[in-house]
């Protein structure tokens, strides 16, 4: 279970990006975070895995307070937080297998990491997960030879190799075409159920949030102003989150399988 309480993030003397945010995610739920540019979506995810330092507040993962961890304790905690990035964050010159096994770096010693001599059990698990997402036949192929969808699948498997207690996905479909982005969303949805893994997805496509997640959290100016089921996310919630942006309404009406309108900018915070 992820428990966020009164989370604040401020950069310098500027107005806080996150303003006493409260959020609980548990079980195998798939939760989407939506909001306009600057709403704080990406900042929130990066506070959870401490890529960004919270200014104040509490972040607990299965009862373990993350905010005050340092050094070795922080590294151990990060092993249990899988992260899927918009830009994939792969090492292009390495093979798919080598990129996937990078998810075990927090578990092996320095010699094993430098020489890439991973335990056989890690290699076997990597093949199992790659088969599950349909990329096992690319095991020895360089990462830069893959398509965007294939690269994102590598990123998903790498995160799962950490044996995470929660999976964070920061705009995982923003760099993909509409059909491939739907495939990635379906994959995240099914993996959450299969692995009993909570998944928190920062996403700018409202239609995909409604179609592939079971709960939507809407942020505006660092505050949560909607938290509910996709069926309850209508025009009123959309206007409250995006301030009545005309193109936002167009995006919410897009059906899965059709290209989304390009009106709602994604969060750069």
From TrEMBL:
Q: Which residues form a coiled coil?
A: none
Q: Which residues form the ABC transporter domain?
A: 2-246
Q: Where is this region: Disordered?
A: 248-269
Q: Which membrane topology term applies here?
A: Peripheral membrane protein
Localization in the cell: Cell inner membrane
The lineage's top-level taxon is Bacteria
Which residues belong to the signal peptide in this entry? none
Entry keywords, A to Z: ATP-binding, Cell membrane, Membrane, Nucleotide-binding, Translocase, Transport
State what protein this is by name: Phosphonate ABC transporter ATP-binding protein
Which species expresses this protein natively? Billgrantia desiderata
